Polysaccharide deacetylase family protein (Pelomonas lactea), 242 residues
Amino acid sequence: MKLLLTMVLAAATTAATAAEPGCAADVLGTSRTLTLKREGAAWGTAQHAALPGLAPGEVVLTFDDGPRPESTPLVLKALADQCVKATFFMNGEPMSRHPALARQVRDAGHTVGMHGYRHDNFSQLPAEDQVRDLKAMIAAYVDALGVQPAAYRFPFLAESPVLMGALSKQGITVMSVDAGAEDWLPGQSPQMLADKLLGQLAKSGGGIVLLHDAQDQTAKALPFLLQTLRAKGFKVVHLRWE
């Protein structure tokens, strides 16, 4: 059993490095970086297997639906203040409108993935429209960042066989989730969001956390959420693809 676990971890990860120095002792910080292979894998227990290489109490922070000038910079500041690195799954339309902000996210040391060009629910679209959206998303990503994408999260987590196959053929990893705060629901205070997130983390033990940098309430609550994670002993792992 130990040998099998070792083989799985080796296949999914190419490096697990310590956090960068220079962070204050009283912040959450990024405990280490996990580097994944560029492959057509799929992770996140909401729909798939757990992400290999994570220990109990470790979380990967991810943000969807940006970049948005009104809220993404606030999210970046909160992360910087706590010396935390995250993964941003961006939509193609705002990427095309705000390429400099997409690059700002990347240049701050965060990882950028894809989240659909128009944030459509692909379970409700014909196959040709799904493929068209993916092509537009990849083009927007390459135009903004100048490199090929490695990761994708489905809008609404509405995975479709058509796009799962297309992403797999291109060696693009699909990222689902393990826990979240339902921060797309309006009218929630920082404490409400923290309580929801901790409740889900109590069930999952850690894993991939879903938040939304396009939500004003999330941007405002993020300093409190990060402080809460630290107080509860969670460790942040940053994802990269080789």
Q: What stands out?
A: The mean pLDDT is 92. The chain has one domain: 2-241. The helical segments are 2-12, 72-81, 92-97, 99-107, 127-145, 161-169, 190-204, 216-231. Residues 2-241 form a domain with the TIM Barrel fold (CATH 3.20.20.370).
